[in-house]
Amino acid sequence: MFKEQGHHQPLLVQAYTWPVIQRGRHLVALAPPRCGKTLAYLLPLLQALATPDMYKEILQNGSGVTVLQWINTILYQVECLMSN
Question: Is 0.85 surpassed by the pTM of this model?
Fold first, then answer.
């Protein structure tokens, strides 16, 4: 997905957030519009869900993900990225 979006290396917010998310830590990321925040949290999530062991653990623990956005267009962007 990352390379399909035309990116060759992580943007700044992604470079900082991915290691934190991959360690299972909670995170709030603030950055200007169009700086890569959506992929900053979606890619680690998709990576975890693509791993059968992690997917099974998520189902067993009742873990989940909540995406909060205050602008409908951003919610639509997240929905489009996740449905691809």
Answer: no
**Secondary structure of the chain as H, E, C letters:** CCCCCCCCCCCHHHHHHHHHHHCCCCCCCCCCCCCCHHHHHHHHHHHHHHCHHHHHHHHHHCCCCCCCCCCHHHHHHHHHHHHC
pLDDT digits (tens, 9 = 90+) for 10-52: 889 999 998 998 888 888 888 888 888 888 878 887 887 778 7
Domain annotation covers residue 42 = yes
> Range of 29's domain?
12-83
Residue 26 lies in a domain: yes
Number of domains composing the chain = 1
Query: Quick check: is 7 in a domain?
Result: no
